[in-house]
Design brief:
Blueprint (H helix, E strand, L loop, with lengths): L12 H21 L12 H11 L6 H17 L4 H22 L4 H4 L6 H20 L2 H6 L3 H25 L20 H25 L9 H10 L2 H20 L10 H40 L7 E2 H16 L5 E8 L2 H8 L1 H18 L5 E6 L2 E7 L3 H17 L14 E7 H4 L5 H17 L5 E3 L1
Parallel strand pairs: 1-3, 5-6
Antiparallel strand pairs: 2-4, 2-5, 3-4
Helix pairs in contact: 1-2, 1-3, 2-4, 2-8, 3-4, 4-6, 6-8, 6-12, 8-11, 8-12, 9-10, 10-11, 10-12, 11-12, 14-15, 15-16
């Protein structure tokens, strides 16, 4: 059991919306500085950043958030010398683009949005296509008015840059580490590696392959250079977390685009066809590793669920018998060698058969779940609690004296006795437990967990024979 951390004080809504506006403002400045003279930006991260944040934090998606983002868009344009009309038109299209993507993604489940399902990459691609098309259609009419260019060229360039930005940036925002994440951001293979050198190799080899591919394509060049980094990106997607793989794809793809375009392309209508081809190619370059990373994350999550199901009781959520023995035995042995020792409790729900006979097995199951929650609260974070079968439970208490162990057992018994339990059968019911307690100090330093459980079970039967709802020390 783990002690729950107290939640930090939430930020005020005004501060959150102001922060969103400033983020959009800063992202717009990055895009504005990447503009060729007299045309749209070659790289515009603001829309993808806004979409990622709205999807990642659903409570943020309120009218004030769109207002704050709109102010950030327009302020950046006006600060850098844009006309009022152009700033309002283009940034209205930007807001429509991000909103369209949000409408596609907002109803998806959390695992899909956190890129932990095999279909996550496809849903993200659908949202990116929708958002890019909506933004391009809304903004392309500005081409003949403000850029003296055909609307079709602006449509092509807007769509391609938005598609690329969404597929590169949104995965990084959605997969960024959160407080409740437990998976490491390093290759999963390192967990099975026995030497430090091998561990270091598996940490750096995938990203090193990207650097090697970059060097090779610099030397060889040619039309196929765009694909030279694919094996390295796929290796990273299989080895690292989705966030790390997405971040590497962002860096590599932007570097690839810059390398291909430097001295060759100008991101203006004069090179609209070539720029469209390059951006779509970069988007597809990122899609493959992203799909692999999502599939790898889905597989890892399935394995964690299987492992949890194997080690935990499916009704109460506490450790199953085999897992309790596996985790408890080394715990007892370690504390046997120390000064404090360890204690073991066997617990039995009194008259449980009557609950099943009178109210049905569903009511009995609800009673067991409720009693388990009370026991988990009464025990310490370091204690182990497991279900041995039926209505019998066992707890391993490391690092306690006999007196401390007895106090914990009495606290647990009293907590169960005083708590009302809802079983779906009218008024809440009350229950009691009988507890057999044994301390390792009473059985000598060679007693293992099996011996302690047997002694605790004997004490439990004495508690039941003496009238139940009591603690008997063996």
């Amino acid at each position: 059991m783990l002690r729950t951390l107290a939640p930090s004080r939430p930020l005020s809504p005004a501060l959150v919306w102001s922060g969103l506006g400033l983020l959009v403002f800063g992202a717009c400045l990055v895009g504005i500085f990447a503009r060729p003279i007299g045309f749209l930006s070659a790289f515009w991260p603001a829309n993808a950043l806004l979409l990622g944040l709205l999807v990642r934090y659903p409570t943020l998606a309120r009218p004030p958030a769109w207002i704050a983002a709109g102010l950030g868009y327009v302020a950046a344009d006006l600060l850098t010398g844009s006309q009022w009309g152009m700033a309002l038109w283009l940034n209205a299209a930007n807001l429509l683009s991000a909103t369209a993507g949000w409408l596609v993604l907002r109803r998806l489940d959390e695992n899909t949005l956190r890129l932990r399902r095999t279909v996550s990459a496809l849903y993200l691609l659908l949202a990116a296509l929708t958002a890019s098309a909506v933004g391009a259609l809304a903004g392309c009419g500005a081409a003949p008015v403000y850029f003296n260019a055909p609307w079709s060229d602006l449509l092509s360039l807007w769509f391609s840059t938005e598609l690329m930005n969404y597929m590169l940036i949104v995965p990084v925002v959605l997969a960024a580490p959160r407080a409740d994440d437990s998976a490491p951001l390093i290759p999963a293979t390192t967990a099975a590696t026995s030497t430090a050198w091998a561990s270091m190799f598996w940490r750096v080899a995938p990203v090193s392959s990207l650097l090697l591919a970059e060097g090779v394509r610099t030397v060889i060049g040619g039309p196929g250079m765009l694909a030279f980094v694919v094996p390295g990106l796929l290796w990273c997607a299989l080895s690292y977390s989705t966030f790390t793989a997405s971040l590497l794809s962002l860096v590599v793809c932007l570097w690839t685009m810059a390398g291909v375009a430097t001295g060759v392309l100008n991101f203006t209508p004069a090179h609209a066809g070539d720029v469209f081809s390059l951006r779509v190619g970069v988007t597809l370059l990122a899609l493959g590793p992203l799909a692999v990373a999502c599939a790898s994350a889905a597989r890892a999550q399935a394995l964690r669920r299987m492992d949890h199901a194997k080690r935990h009781d499916d009704l109460t959520g506490v450790l199953a018998r085999r897992a309790l023995l596996k985790q408890g035995d080394p715990l007892v042995a370690r504390h046997q060698r120390g000064c404090a020792g360890a204690a073991v409790m066997m617990l039995d729900v009194d008259h449980f058969k009557q609950v099943n006979d009178q109210n049905g097995h569903s009511a009995g199951d609800q009673l067991l779940v409720g009693i388990t929650k009370i026991m988990a609260i009464a025990l310490r974070p370091a204690d182990l609690l497991g279900r041995m079968g039926g209505q019998e439970f066992a707890a391993v208490l490391p690092g306690v004296s006999p007196a401390e162990a007895h106090a914990i057992a009495e606290r647990l018994r009293t907590a169960v006795e005083q708590a009302p339990f809802a079983t779906g059968q009218g008024s809440p019911q009350h229950a009691t437990v009988s507890i057999g307690l044994v301390h390792s100090a009473t059985l000598g330093g060679d007693a293992d967990l099996e011996v302690l459980l047997l002694a605790a079970d004997t004490a439990l039967y004495r508690a039941k024979a003496e009238g139940r709802n009591r603690v008997v020390v063996g």
